[in-house]
Amino acid sequence: MTHFQLCALLMGLAVSGMLRVGGIKIYTSHEVEAVNGTDVRLKCTFHSSSDIKPPTVSVSWNFRPLGPGREESVFYYHDKPYPPIEGRFRKRVVWAGDILGGDASIMLREVKFIFNGTYTCQVKNPPDVHGSAGEVRLRVVATASYYEIAIIAGAIGGAIVLMLLILGIILWVRSCRRRRMERAAERLERGPKPPPVKKERKDPTLCHPAEALHLYVKEEEIEIDSSDGVISEPSTKDPSSSEEEDDSSDDDDGGDDDD
What pTM, to 2 d.p., does this model score? Predict the structure, then answer.
């Protein structure tokens, strides 16, 4: 057989669907632990090489018990969910997936010890119908394990710390706001601030008042002659001297008369 004939044969098989050219990939959580009487989610996601068309996608969940027993159907989905109508999973399984999001998970309600076993998840998206099924081993226990208790306690403690932190921030913001309001009220009570006093600049050419030389000017009388409006010099003669002169002149006159 020539190389050309071999390529033609392979292409023909691929077109006819006889050759597996791709496979759908399924991812599960492998192992899950749940407390008796609680709900548990069995996670199953898938990735297909073909475009996802919800009306053509089918999901099958099956169960194999730990002990002896036959495999039984748990859940089926094809365009809509088909929960079981009989068996141990009747009214205990609900759809929790999203086909367009590549999610084919289911939820088990109020699990019992008889739910211990292996759950298989298989998804088909024509023409991508090949691929191995994913498996999830469920272990139902009476109480939560120490690891789960530690996780729950850590989650609760983290939530409490976060709440306390948020509460502290809220109280701090309120305290700051109250202080601002108190300061504003004090400012209103005090009234507006007086304008700042401007400091006068000292002229370096001026001296201190204590160092200043006080000059006194003697006030002099100024006589004004009303006849010509000329200011005449004030008389410097003593009034007493003028009177003496008048007396002497009188005496002289008297003497002459006697003669």
Answer: 0.50
In 3D space, the residue among 228, 38, 44 whose CA is nearest the CA of residue 131 turns out to be 44
Same domain, 54 and 126: yes
Same domain? For 157 and 71 the reply is no
Q: Residue 157: helix, strand or coil by DSSP? A: helix
Whether residue 77 is found in the same domain as residue 166: no
Distance set, CA 185 to CA 193, 194, 203 (Å): 14, 18, 43
Partners of 121 in the β-ladder:
61, 134
Q: Which phi and psi (to 5°) does residue 40 adopt?
A: -145, 140
- Domain of 109 in residue numbering reads as 19-143
CATH number of the structural domain spanning residue 30? 2.60.40.10
Please, is 129 exposed, middle or buried when counting C-beta atoms within 10 Å of its C-beta (0-12, 13-18, 19+)?
middle
Lowest mean pLDDT among 14-18, 103-107, 203-207, 235-239: 14-18
Pull the structure tokens for residue 173.
Answer: 């913001």
Report the 10 Å Cβ neighbour count for 117: 19
